[in-house]
Amino acid sequence: MEELLEKMKKYLTMKKKPYVSKVAQDLELQEYEVYGLVELLKRQGYLFDILDGKIVKIKPIKENDVYKIPNNLDHLKLLMISDTHLGSKYDRLDILRYLYDKAEDNNINYILHSGDLTEGLSGRPQQMYELKEASYTGQRDYVIDKYPKSDIPTYLIAGNHDLWWVRECGADICRDIANHREDLHYLGSDCEDLKIGKLKIRMYHGTGGGAYAKSYKLQKYLDSIDISERPHILQTGHIHQAFFMKQGKTHCFQTSCLQDLTPYERSKGLPNDKSVWWVDVYMDNNGNVHSITQELETFDKKLVKKYR
Ligand SMILES: [Fe+2]
Question: What separation in Å is there between the alpha carbon of 10 and the centre of ligand 1?
Fold first, then answer.
């Protein structure tokens, strides 16, 4: 059955809105078996449905300010990334490509991006010399074209750099990009809640300058959430420094950046770690979160070789 589900997932990634009859023919199945496989994928959290006889990709549903994704897996694998600053001369598409290939080979279920997808336009004159793309359409099309394409869904929020475009031209660049890419799901700006099965995740970007200690902003932000409202996973961005702590049931992942140190960061003495979190979440028999483990993978200035 697992083999069949894998085959179905791969097939649905390649085809756009195929008819059930066509899927049945291509995969040598009965139509009722295709309906059954789509139902199984839906229960595992894959966002497919059947409409007018066609299998379509759907967006997660937001209820009471929380995006909900079904899940019946007892082991969820996540990749957490942040602050890709695409469109900057210092962006690291090589690392992103490596990560998406590795995520596919390691059967990662979801990739979470906690903001600053694009470099944006700051209004600081010297920033012009740090940009590959200086216009809204330039940065938007760069991401649509170059962001790795994958059958793993990526959920993302906008960070302060992305939101500079709202000030510049009244446009939400992350929404625009996601509207052109079926594998990228835009949740909203700065702070959004996501529930995968019973796993509660808060994604938060943040604003303002650096902190005296790398743990400071994460700790302060966690303190601001009422204990009864706290998620299992808090993923933050913005600081460009990795840090992990666990308080109560909440595993807090400060996710650093995937961008080399910019002249601006150097002149301000701002930190620049390049890393990502690989996270495993284990559920008990009732689908409740049993345990969460994590591994930090770091990068340096060297170009990363292709994973495959
Ligand atoms: Fe950033």
Answer: 33
How many distinct structural domains can be found in the chain?
2
Structural domain for 24, as ranges:
2-57
The neighbourhood of ligand 1, an ion, using CB within 5 A, equals 83, 116
Query: Is 304 part of a structural domain of the chain?
Result: no
Question: What does the pLDDT average to over 212-226?
Answer: 91
- Identify the weakest region by mean pLDDT among 9-13, 160-164, 288-292: 9-13
Together in a domain, 21 and 130: no
- Measured in Å, residue 237 CA sits from the centre of ligand 1 at 7
Task: Give me the DSSP letters along the chain.
Answer: -HHHHHHHHHHHHHSSS-BHHHHHHHTT--HHHHHHHHHHHHHTT--EEEETTEEEE-PPEEETTEEEE----SEEEEEEE----BTBTTB-HHHHHHHHHHHHHTT--EEEE-S--B----S-GGGGGGBS--SHHHHHHHHHHHSPP-SS-EEEEE-HHHHHHHHHHS--HHHHHHHH-TTEEEEEESEEEEEETTEEEEEE---SS--SSTTHHHHHHHHHS-GGG--SEEEE-SS-S-EEEEETTEEEEE--BSBPPPHHHHHHT----EEEEEEEEEE-TTS-EEEEEEEEEEE-SSPPPP--
14: pLDDT strictly greater than 90: no
Q: Specify the pLDDT at position 58.
A: 83
Higher pLDDT residue, 307 or 118? Answer: 118
Is 65 found in the same domain as 45? no
Global pTM reads: 0.91
